Amino acid sequence: MDSQIMTKPAAETGTERGSCCPASANGQACDFGSLGGFEDLSGKVGHVEVLQCRQCGLGISTPPIPDVSFLYEGRESQDFQQDGSRIGHAIKRVAFRRQAQALLRQLGQRPARTLDFGCGSGLFTRCLGDVLGDGSVTGSDFEPSAPVDLAGRPYLSMAELDAHKGSFDLVLAMHVLEHDDDPAALLDRICAMAKPGGTVVIEVPNVECAWVPIFGKAWDAWYLPFHRSHFSRTALRALAERQGYTVMAEANVCVPTIGRSMSNVFGGNKGLAWLLAGIAAHPVQWAGEKIAGRPSALRIILRTPG
Ligand SMILES: [Zn+2]
Q1: What is the homologous superfamily of the domain 10-303 according to CATH?
Q2: Distance from the CA of 56 to the center of ligand 1, in angstroms?
Q3: What is the per-residue pLDDT for 264?
Q4: How far is the CA of 29 from the centre of ligand 1 (A)?
Q5: Which of 30, 75, 237, 246: disulfide with 21, CB 3.0–4.6 Å?
Q6: In angstroms, what is the span from residue 31 Cα to ligand 1's centroid?
Q7: Dist. CA 222 → ligand 1 center (Å)
Q8: For residue 117, which of 59, 199, 172 has the smallest C-alpha distance?
Q9: Could you state, in order of their start, the residue ranges of all structural domains in the chain?
Q10: How far, in Å, CA of 270 to CA of 52, rounded?
Q11: Centre of ligand 1 from the C-alpha of residue 237, in Å
């Protein structure tokens, strides 16, 4: 089957935000209630608010932002930030390399060609490339040129991706899907990059994480207005299945968000001290999520139609 990048508006795909609640018996719309106003971290939008479905847990950020690219202009958002300190950078490099190795063990494959869709700072992309071999991992993001951490490695801008559809054995979209108002269309764009029968790994923050009730609006993964969709396990799986992908596996992931969340409580300076505090608190974070069965992030491994 020839994979096509879908460009239909959400209303036509029948997957308009919350129009079909996976937790309802007969395809009714989500039953949204407001979680109230949140701080606008971009300074570009003004009042931002999250609505959450009482049944499936899906959260959506309002007001709607049909084209989010202006939020990332000039790579000024936190998604692209380089570490100011060498120690912070070195710690992340070690952590990302271990994550890359763990991911490959979970997949049980060594893909010849991998695309990291929405590669952000590019540090994870580089670490995965270090493990898989030079030139086999390509990063991609909005900007025309590669981020500093990916300098000298393969990189494609979003605008260049069309020419490479259906050519990757493995496509990763780590903490990407939550950045768009129309996650169905974005999921199709991501999956269209994989070969027919290829593997796609999607990871997103879990809106039902054990730490959300504790940190409230200071929980770092709210990250408004950049995060547009807030997934529960039910909502993520339902989206993937509705778009026609086979769910091969689901996994819980403990993403070190607790240092950043503590930093938000105390005014939002996300420096090295908070990175170290987060590392110190990581065993507590991990144990809390394990006991509650409510991880900070959800990973889903999909197969595209063959
Ligand atoms: Zn719902």
Answers
A1: Vaccinia Virus protein VP39 (3.40.50.150)
A2: 4
A3: 83
A4: 7
A5: 30
A6: 6
A7: 18
A8: 172
A9: 10-303
A10: 27
A11: 12
pTM of the model: 0.88
State residue 25's pLDDT score. 80
Q: Cα separation of 32 and 27, whole Å?
A: 15
Question: Cβ of 144: how many Cβ atoms within 10 Å?
Answer: 11
- What the block records as the tokens of 89 is 């950078």
Here the tokens at position 155 are: 């990189």
- E strand segments, the chain: 32-38, 48-53, 59-62, 114-117, 137-141, 155-157, 168-174, 194-205, 229-230, 246-253, 297-303
* Alpha-carbon distances of 69 from 63, 148, 158, 175, 213, rounded to whole Å: 15, 19, 11, 16, 31
Cβ-contact 155, 138 below 8 angstroms: yes
pLDDT tens string 153-210: 999 999 999 999 999 999 999 999 999 999 999 999 999 999 999 999 999 999 999 9
pLDDT, position 269: 67
pLDDT at 20: 86
Supply the pLDDT for residue 33.
95
For residue 19, how far is its CA from the centre of ligand 1 (angstroms)?
Answer: 8
CA of 248 to the centre of ligand 1 (A): 23
pLDDT score of 6 more than 60: no
Average model confidence (pLDDT) for the chain? 88
75-79 average pLDDT score = 66
Q: Which amino acid is at 30?
A: C
